[in-house]
What we know:
mainly alpha; disordered C terminus; 9 helices
Amino acid sequence: MSSPASGRPEVHGAGSLVDERQVRALPVTARGQRTRESLVAAARQVFERDGFINSRLTDIAREARTSIGTFYTYFDSKDEIFTAVLQVAQDDMLHPGLPRVEEDPQNIAAVLEASNRAYFEAYRRNAQLMVLLEQVATINPDFRDLRIQRAKVFTTRVMRWVESMQESGVADRSLDPLMTSRALTSMVSRLAYYSFALGEEWDVEAMVETSTKLWFNALGMTLPGPTAD
Amino acid sequence: MSSPASGRPEVHGAGSLVDERQVRALPVTARGQRTRESLVAAARQVFERDGFINSRLTDIAREARTSIGTFYTYFDSKDEIFTAVLQVAQDDMLHPGLPRVEEDPQNIAAVLEASNRAYFEAYRRNAQLMVLLEQVATINPDFRDLRIQRAKVFTTRVMRWVESMQESGVADRSLDPLMTSRALTSMVSRLAYYSFALGEEWDVEAMVETSTKLWFNALGMTLPGPTAD
Amino acid sequence: MSSPASGRPEVHGAGSLVDERQVRALPVTARGQRTRESLVAAARQVFERDGFINSRLTDIAREARTSIGTFYTYFDSKDEIFTAVLQVAQDDMLHPGLPRVEEDPQNIAAVLEASNRAYFEAYRRNAQLMVLLEQVATINPDFRDLRIQRAKVFTTRVMRWVESMQESGVADRSLDPLMTSRALTSMVSRLAYYSFALGEEWDVEAMVETSTKLWFNALGMTLPGPTAD
Amino acid sequence: MSSPASGRPEVHGAGSLVDERQVRALPVTARGQRTRESLVAAARQVFERDGFINSRLTDIAREARTSIGTFYTYFDSKDEIFTAVLQVAQDDMLHPGLPRVEEDPQNIAAVLEASNRAYFEAYRRNAQLMVLLEQVATINPDFRDLRIQRAKVFTTRVMRWVESMQESGVADRSLDPLMTSRALTSMVSRLAYYSFALGEEWDVEAMVETSTKLWFNALGMTLPGPTAD
DNA sequence: TATGAATGAGCCTTCATTCAT
DNA sequence: TATGAATGAAGGCTCATTCAT
């Protein structure tokens, strides 16, 4: 129903987390831009294949058909190119918007469902990168912060939504909004992780259905009646 | 009914996952045993301080006040001593508390609550180790398998319980038991992770209360009535 | 008649035994080629001075006035640079001088003598390397095979020659050609070994004369008469 | 024919080369002697299996079912136990005696044949040890000297015999006795090496026959006539 | 900009030898 | 005598980073 294109009323939508300010200016010449792009593409490939830790800059340079010297023309370190790789995926993971707070539970369920579906689809497309971020976050505090920040944005948005649901009397008011939204976002992100990153390969529609139902139930919402669905 | 044959009635309870067979024979002399133990203790300390990847064997040896040669007397590699470290924590993560399947939802809630509480407490005691396992799992397939296996055991137990709840009509029968239990266990483990591993330091009782309520709601169970609580 | 198709009429002549395929591409720049060459030269020096086993890669690097890192830019291991060292000496050990099978024993003796002389001279130039190969062959099966292969080629050529001598009635037909040629090649190679490698430093001309006479006699050939010599 | 038992007139017979003086006194107690013996036996086994260089003292101790500490009770080093291992084989390789100088070439041939046969048989029994000595000789000057010394004794004995043959007019007087005997002993020792150590597994009788014939011919001796044999 | 050779700190691993019990 | 734990020098190898061309 509500798609990113139509006003973007989603639950999980998150803003950009990777700092948009370039550490260094992008190359001016077209040739330079091409070289940089091929390095980023090669890096993503190598990272996804070997993991961040087991990857070597020489491999990235070779994969990009350039030299290691050229690598350092565009990036200062492995961390920096990893940031660049993440940035590419960033836009794809951005699917902002929250379901409008409507009295009609039927509509709420539909928006929630669409939002979860969008999240799972985006995760699917970037699963390997998510695993990578997971890995790098265990080593590098900067990326750990990035990952926490990312989760926080999601959680905060959901929290706002939960609060509005509670205020309008649709959701169970006795639930702590923050902890609840943390729990609910964890639920979908882990589901996505197991399915796409660890390769359990579940049916996306089943995931969407189950998670939507669980959210709905968990918040103490009820579908309008036996006629629903 | 839903409890394992061994008589351990737990929701989250897991059997030993770290292979109990010693890779090499334990030292014969008391002195040797002491040295081995001090190495394991030192390793845990160093791992928790520096992370698995950034730790060096020489640091572990120094911390244990032995030589690097002595390290190799007892362990073949960093991986091997990490396994030993995990083994120490293993028993602690085994915990009791499975809710008996009773018709009385009140009682179910109480047992579920106890079970979740026990899980959170155990996680709290071993949080840093869990983070470590998370890290090592991103690099080493063996530990990734261990981690997946660990999650699977938890999920399976919860799944059995969910199924029995569905059979007895207490829980929503339209929910897929496997996916649901995966979602529910993810919820608590991530909550624990954020709180204890990432240092968000929430109140355990609040976590217990919220997660129990969410499970309860999510499964479509209802407390007896307004008199409850 | 007994000469190989390639037109190389030798008794001891051997083809290339060290695999010519480069394990890794040769350096592109002139500078790189110079460095690689200096490493090979340094390795030969260090190997001859300290033996293969007692040599250290750091010594080779230092001798070549480079860093250990540079060593690994060009070679993967001690074995690999040893192969490169052997390759340099390879061409030198290929030498001409196969006696044509003529009825005239006088001539046979002369060609045989020339062939043996060439062998001894080549051995003298590469004696230390031969000792090294001997050493490495006792540890590493690959080099043992190389050494056996080398000996086999020599033996086979001599065997062909012996057979042709037997066929033309010049040599004793009751001798087993294979065993006989193994014995005869062993004779000269050991003589060379004792003289040049172990430093007994005999007069080459005396060695040539004696070995030629022994081969001649052993095969039951006779010089034309008392006027010979 | 003259056998080792009957006055031992052999060609290759050599005296003891391993210094008989014990580096340390043999153990006094019977138990100590047993331990020492089992260590030597274990060492031979391990050396033959792994080579001298790749063998470890701990393996020898384990194979002997004792501790490394006990090893050092009886031996100071790997070299020392290797010496002890060689000593055991020494007696077996000792088969002294030279063919009596007789005018009758028929008899000479017979003695020579018996002598060569005895040599090959002894070599066969100790082939692996000979390979080991070869290896150790490339690393350790002491053992290189031992090996050279060993060869020298053989060569000297043969040289004496060759000289006597020349003096009595049986052998070609134009041959240099030293170089000739070096050549002839090399011939049989290498034949033995290829057959027993490198596993070419030739028929011993064929080796005996061929080498005897070659020696005979090479020295310019002739069997009494067409009636011979 | 592009290249790729050069660098060396840093970490791992082995195993002969010592020594306390 | 026997044991086996403890030691650490020695050497192998990696790879991010620098730099001359």
